[in-house]
Specification:
Elements: H1 2-21, H2 62-67, E1 109-115, E2 120-126, E3 135-140, E4 143-150, E5 156-161, E6 165-173, E7 182-189, E8 195-203, E9 208-215
Parallel strand pairs: 1-9
Antiparallel strand pairs: 2-5, 2-7, 3-4, 3-6, 6-9, 7-8
Length: about 220
Amino acid sequence: MKQLFISFLFLIPFIGWSQGDLPDAKPLKIEVANKKDDDGKKDQGTALRIPDVIKEQPKIDFKDSLSGRRPVKMIDERGLVQAGSGMKIDPKVGPRKAKEGSKDHFGNQYLGELKNNGKYVGIVARDHEFVDGDRVKIYLNERVIDANMLLTGAFKGVNIDLNKGFNRIEFEALNEGSSAPNTAQVDVYDDQGQLIYSNKWLLSSGSRASLVITKE
């Protein structure tokens, strides 16, 4: 009798589920895309309508292009222009020229004088600041020694034979590069290769830096 009671308790949950506690199975309903409306037309839904960016589809027949009857054109004939073709450049843009008399103008500069009895001296110069294309003309007593020297980051120069008396060496700024003014470091070596002088200049275009070497 006791075993029959235990078996009855075990069957109670299954009896309860058979009376509606089990969840009902609902079939998944899949509808057909672009179904027809009441008028029999297909419903397009929310599909994006992307405009055609090519007005005319290219007609290419590779058989004709290989035979030479209708070659493929590699050049666009639609009259397209390069980007920026209509751009106007302001003539004020570029290296700024400082007017004479203004605080930004660098006039003639006297570098000093020294004595040397050697046969010649070596004059070297370099752009000691921003290398921007500065150029100079070098004179000896108003005679052109170098008509157009480009100043770079490395020293370059010339040997100048010394005359008895005064030797006036001048450096004329031919331009101011892309960043004004014309800037340089100038060094002078004697005929023994010894450094005897060093200085720097800041010049506006057309100005000169002068150095006097006296030979007895």
